[in-house]
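Help wanted!
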Amino acid sequence: MTLSLVMHDWRLLERIVGLTNRLGCAYTRVDVRAGEAHYHATIDFVGPPDALRRLDAQLSRLLNDDKEMSR
Amino acid sequence: MLQPAESTGAQLVLDVLADEGVEIVFGYPGGANMPLYDKLYAHSIEHVLVRHEAAAAFAAGGYARASGRVGVCFATSGPGATNLVTGLLDALMDSVPVVAVTGQVRTALMGTDGFQEADVTSIMGPVTKRSVCVRDVRDLERVLRAAFRVARGPRPGPVLVDVPSDILKAACPKMDPFAARPVAAAPEHPGDGAIDETIELIRNAKRPVAIVGGGARSANAVYLYRELVAMLELPHTATINGLGCATPGDPRFLGMLGMHGWKAANLAVNTADLVLALGMRFDDRVTGKPDKFARNAKIVHADVDASEFGKILPVAVALRGDLRQTLERLVRRLGREETMPRFSGWAAEAKALGGPLPADRAPHGELSATDVLDAFFAVAPDDTIVSTDVGQHQMWAAQRQRAIHPRNFLTSAGLGSMGFGLPAAIGAQFAHPERTVVAVCGDGGFQMSMAELATVRRHELPVKILLIDNRRLGMVRQWQELFYERRYSHTDLSDNPDFVTIASGYGIRGERIEDAGELRDALERFLGSREPALLHCACFPAENVWPLIPPGATVDDAMEAAPQTEAIVA
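Answered by r_m:
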């Protein structure tokens, strides 16, 4: 599963890594680039399909809070 | 261009908090947050000095749970902040809005292993919705405002703002109360299609059951939930966080669901062909073995958090959005139906699936915890707020509580954190000074936070402590008895202190009873004054919580008594 994520706080990567591990998944590639006001991360995740689906859902929640914190 | 310096970071923190409606903060000062406490000295915000930072987080959570407002706690850097971890995780697990403001060492010291330095934002990451360190005073107000928005929702939870001491001391413009600020986005609601699908499933159901969770409390949707189950004459049950959502005395309410839930509730869900899961998250203490839970039912799941859909169980319909709006739409649509589906016959059948709660009998004349709690709930005022600690007494209380609203029964449900009961009661009493607030505690949990008796005394809070003392870590002892061949490893507390003397040391009236015949009069004295009081109930130690669905098992495996009946006390 490859996700393109927008992070307003680059430290969020730490949370993403922790959550990935907690759900029994892993990542095989992390690419983060700084934009003007936020960061673009492209991450290749591997893991059981159900865990990846839950990871995707929880990352959406995390990124929504991050977006709100940046306003 | 920077406006003239009229304020400081510390002053700004307090002014923003006040502007966000904060009237009270629970906290503890230390080196790094001294600038904040210095400004607090003359500020209108009331501060409650707890005796351990863990209690500050629990009290802020208790305040938030009881009031629906954001609870706020302060702690200093390093150990002060780390002591908040459990209380913040408790708030995260139960979706309780809390904002924690921690002092941090000055920015120049960060990363040098300075005195009382800890990487607080990293530590707090997994236990909060967001944790942020403010390194520039110009960001401070924006971050604090955002912290309140995020804490409030859509799904409430804790947010931590870490502020280095030099940022607290830094000069900055005074808060402009009239400045334009971002507002929270309007809550989402499910589309008409999902509502129509739900109505269709209800129409076609023969044995529907509603399950309500803490989401109804968070969304202020309790009245709509009551309206929905009444109009459909539905049998319904609640997770532990949903207790109090049912209309008091509703004959179709089946009691608490789950591991220690009422038999009728568990069997009804097991028999149901449709489950309306409203603001709940299928915790393992509710489902047991997920693939056997509600095995014959289609599930309609309504929740504000999309990540909950399909997390544990597949759902037929996902109603994503604010639960109040979801239920409003559902009730309105049902009201327009030419013929309303009604399930009173099935509700009566569901109720008949179970009987009274099973309980162990106390040896002659001795006090049983379940008798104490039965008697307590029978005489406590209707609007009493009860907080619990965690363990057997928590489950006995949850089974028997008569809360008229979910904000009247406060318990560490998801995290199950001992030490919650007393500080949560303190927070609740500050939220509702006029109400009777009772902390129902076990002897284990009470000893994790009994220093907060000092907080009770200092503020002359009329908090009551109903101490269920079985001289054991009872829930663990019960599992040792049932699942670990009675190897009672380190669960004996028979050398407990004299709790009445301890209460007395804090200037709080205490009374000890150990005989069933003393119970009624003692409860009358306990509840009969507007002063703090401790009622120490020395109960027989072998009493177990029944029913019990063993972990990972199903309702078919429910136990209502220990397999053998000989003496089992360690």
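OP: Thanks! One thing I noticed: The CA atoms of residues 28 and 43 of chain A lie 8 Å apart.
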